Amino acid sequence: MRKNIFILFSILLFFSIIYVSYTYMKIKQTASIKPPKNVSYIIVLGAKVNGDQLSKALLYRAETAFDYWEKNQSSTIIVTGGKGNGEEMTEAAALLNFFIEQGVPKERILVEDKSTSTYENLQYTKTLFSINEAVIVSNDFHLFRALEIAKELKITAYPLAAKTPKSVKLVLYFREYAAIMKMRFTK
């Protein structure tokens, strides 16, 4: 009996290591891709807002999107994200404020402020603005799943990776592995 439990545990551990390794490789591979120039839309995926301040993860996304926009000013930025628990404003509103403070003209920014998930960020953006092609900006750990969702929604998407804050990296990676597994098994 003990031997069977040990064998079962060993098999489970082996497949878990394979899954984590494969997923990590896909996450890193996606994050390393550089988007083409002058894509019409830049979708910045929402993330936590602390009161009315961008979390580090969201700030890194905003800064990365702004760097791309500075070199591609014909692109329109789409800020996404509704209002979560403990947030004084929507994620989209916090991003809008950031870009306006950076000097992006308001007419170069579109707002999607109802979504509460990555899927909704992209689905609502596609519905509201008829998006078929975009650069998607998120933290490196998140882009693989975001691009899989974009593909499902028939959006031609190019990843643009922002760094992930070290203080939350481990937690976010574990959450992302679980979200990717859920995505794969609920299709």
Short key terms for the protein model shown above:
187 residues, alpha/beta, 5-stranded parallel β-sheet, two-stranded antiparallel ribbon, 6 helices, 7 strands, 51% helix, 17% strand
Helix content: 40-55%
Give the number of helices.
Answer: 6
Strand content: 15-25%
Order of helices and strands: HEEEHEHEHEHEH
Q: How would you characterize the largest beta sheet?
A: 5 strands, parallel
What's the count of strands? 7
Q: Report the uncertain regions.
A: none
End-to-end distance, in Å? Answer: 36 Å
Strands of the largest sheet, in order across it?
5-4-1-6-7
Gyration radius, in Å: 18 Å
Please explain how this structure is put together.
The chain is an alpha/beta fold and 187 residues long. It has helices spanning 2-31, 56-71, 91-101, 118-129, 143-152, 169-185; strands at 41-44, 49-50, 53-54, 76-80, 109-112, 133-139, 156-162. The chain is 51% helix and 17% strand. Helix 5 (143-152) links the parallel strand 6 and strand 7 (156-162).
Give the SSE layout:
Blueprint: H1 2-31, E1 41-44, E2 49-50, E3 53-54, H2 56-71, E4 76-80, H3 91-101, E5 109-112, H4 118-129, E6 133-139, H5 143-152, E7 156-162, H6 169-185
How would you sum up this structure in a few lines?
The chain is an alpha/beta fold. It has helices at 2-31, 56-71, 91-101, 118-129, 143-152, 169-185; strands at 41-44, 49-50, 53-54, 76-80, 109-112, 133-139, 156-162.
